[in-house]
Amino acid sequence: MVSLWFSLPKGSAGERPDVKKELSVLLRPQVLSALLTTVLGAGAMFTLYTYISPVLNTLTHASSLFITAMLVLIGVGFSLGNYLGGKFADRSVSGTLKGFLLLLMAIMLGDPAAGAIPGRGGHQHDCLGRSNLCGGSAAADAGYARSA
């Protein structure tokens, strides 16, 4: 705070914002839709990250090294998904949202079957991580684009 005090230019107080007007943007259907998509996507992402260790441990009796590798793989998927989501959203926000939400749904429906096949669970969770973050990036872009 001290460094901000000294580094920011001194200026006039300016006009006071109308808080009610600023918050009224949150009631627009487009903004609510973008917020809901973001919340659901983030919920799915954190659910995956929270429960992967107990699920792999209980259902597949995976070693701690394998579980650690899966968590790293999910992190890589999150990073790639965030990058790809931004790139795809630059082309088409709506198309990216629809495409990645459908992909997430397909991955989640296929998750039980993939978990039963030895060696396929890791690939499945990496794809889930990527898809989740792609959709999240697009949802964030949609919120900015529609509220402007």
UniProtKB/TrEMBL annotation:
<keyword id="KW-0472">Membrane</keyword>
<keyword id="KW-0812">Transmembrane</keyword>
<dbReference type="GO" id="GO:0022857">
    <property type="term" value="F:transmembrane transporter activity"/>
</dbReference>
<feature type="transmembrane region" description="Helical">
    <location>
        <begin position="64"/>
        <end position="85"/>
    </location>
</feature>
<feature type="transmembrane region" description="Helical">
    <location>
        <begin position="97"/>
        <end position="117"/>
    </location>
</feature>
<dbReference type="GO" id="GO:0005886">
    <property type="term" value="C:plasma membrane"/>
</dbReference>
<keyword id="KW-1003">Cell membrane</keyword>
<dbReference type="InterPro" id="IPR050189">
    <property type="entry name" value="MFS_Efflux_Transporters"/>
</dbReference>
<keyword id="KW-1133">Transmembrane helix</keyword>
<feature type="transmembrane region" description="Helical">
    <location>
        <begin position="31"/>
        <end position="52"/>
    </location>
</feature>
<dbReference type="InterPro" id="IPR036259">
    <property type="entry name" value="MFS_trans_sf"/>
</dbReference>
<protein>
    <submittedName>
        <fullName>MFS transporter</fullName>
    </submittedName>
</protein>
